[in-house]
Amino acid sequence: MKRRIGILTSGGDCPGLNAAIRGVALAAHNMFDVEFVGIADGYQGLIDGDYKEMKTSDFHGLLTLGGTILGTRRTPYRNMRKIEEDNVDKVASMKKNYKKMGLDCLVTLGGNGTHKTANLLAEEGLNVIGLPKTIDNDIWGTDVTFGFHTAVDLATEVIDRIHTTANSHQRVMIIEIMGNKAGWLTLYSGVAGGADVVLLPEMPYDPNKVIEAVEKRTSKDRRFTIIALAEGAFTKEAAKMKRKERAAAIKEAGFSSNSFMLADTIQNATGLETRVVVPGHYLRGGSPSPYDRLLATQFGVYGAQLIRDENYGQTVAMIDGKIGHNPLSAVAGITKFVPKDDQIVRAAKDMGICFAD
Ligand code: F6P
Questions:
Q1: Ligand 1: which residues within 6 Å by Cβ?
Q2: Relative to the CA of 66, which of 194, 213, 261, 341 has its CA 20 to 30 Å away?
Q3: CA–CA separation, 97 vs 95, rounded Å?
């Protein structure tokens, strides 16, 4: 029996999306009779009915290609059931287009928001398979997501390179690393890059402890201090506020982000020149690392196996080092935070890296 599979990528892009698309497609073509429909720009394409038939040749040459050949968009889950100005019932449209395309299954590649909508569609009766991607590595139920390790490589290289210029100028350098809710990327790249201070959203920091760490290094004749700060990290004081209030307080103080506010605090307290580096979306760009090519391929192939077995409503995962799956209903939208007793956190603290918590 021929299966018609729709495939979309949703949310922020990351390296490995195309490798995963290729993994699903090549394995499915190899294992059973299949047709693929590529849906443009995430759930928006499913809502609008923007899709095209894909030939086997469309999946060639994708292993090393960054971004996503399908395009992606953030279509927030919280709005999925809202009827907005355009008067479109998004859920009804997605169901209608799934039928119109004649799909047997929909494969969604994305992060927490994508998984929530995937689960919603599964609850609405569609056959859905999720594949977990994000540079944030914050999807519950999987040891790792594809895109993460490439971003760790890139962020580590940024930290490495900042060392030499920090040393030349005797500066404090803050590297603001993506990760709004979870600090995995900052933790891994911070420790791998030899940062002296690591600040994570999960562990609100005391700016005085950061200043102490900087002064301690200066007193030991160290010429520079490297601070790896997650974009979503905040102070203990700010922890008493709601998320929106925190952002407003930074703006009100005249800073574009927490990093710049901390830089100002450090410079005023220590007299040391303090600079901020924001690699931002650079960490999401370009070719996936060999690790991510392998992971995305394995996840994609496993997704095709789930489709072959008609085991729908699942998301692929790495569970204790083995490729497997979790029910979407059990994991969709649950954020995997860095635990305070994470083994890398403990090792880093034991070797004197300051978390200022
Ligand atoms: O979820 C991945 C991520 O890169 C976060 O680390 C970051 O906060 C966010 O996306 C940035 O989103 P956008 O692409 O919308 O600027």
A1: 12, 74, 111, 134-136, 178-180, 231, 284
A2: 194
A3: 6
Helix (H, G, I), strand (E, B) or coil at 334: coil
Q: 3-class SS at 128?
A: strand
pLDDT, tens digit, for every residue of 155-192? 999 999 999 999 999 999 999 999 999 999 999 999 99
CA of 74 to the centre of ligand 1 (A): 10
Mutate to test the pocket of ligand 1, among 109, 178, 188, 257 (most ligand atoms within 8 A of CB): 178
CB 174 within 8 A of CB 216: no
Q: Whose CA is nearest to atom 6 of ligand 1?
A: 179
The domains of the chain are located at: 3-147+288-331, 150-284
End-to-end CA distance of the chain: 58
In this predicted model, what pLDDT tens digit does every residue of 247-263 receive, in sequence order? 999 999 999 999 999 99
Ligand 1 atom with the shortest distance to the CA of 180: 8
Residue of minimum CA distance from atom 12 in ligand 1? 12
- Residue 350: count of CB within 10 angstroms of its CB: 8
DSSP code per residue over 129-156 = EEEEB-TT--BTT-S--BTHHHHHHHHH
Domain 3-147+288-331 is found in CATH 1.10.12.10? no
Residues of the chain with pLDDT below 50 are: none
CA 146 to ligand 1 center in whole angstroms? 15
pLDDT of residue 1: 80
Q: Is 160 a catalytic residue?
A: no
- One-character DSSP codes across 27-69: HHHHHS-EEEEEETTTHHHHHHT-EEEE-GGGGTT-TT--S-T
Asked whether the domain spanning 150-284 has the same topology as the one spanning 3-147+288-331, the reply is yes
Protein residue with its CA nearest to atom 14 in ligand 1: 12
Homologous superfamily (CATH) for 150-284: Phosphofructokinase domain (3.40.50.460)
**Residues 279, 103 contacting (CB under 8 angstroms):** no
- Cα(120) to centroid of ligand 1, in Å? 22
Q: What is the pLDDT of residue 65?
A: 98
Q: Report pTM.
A: 0.97
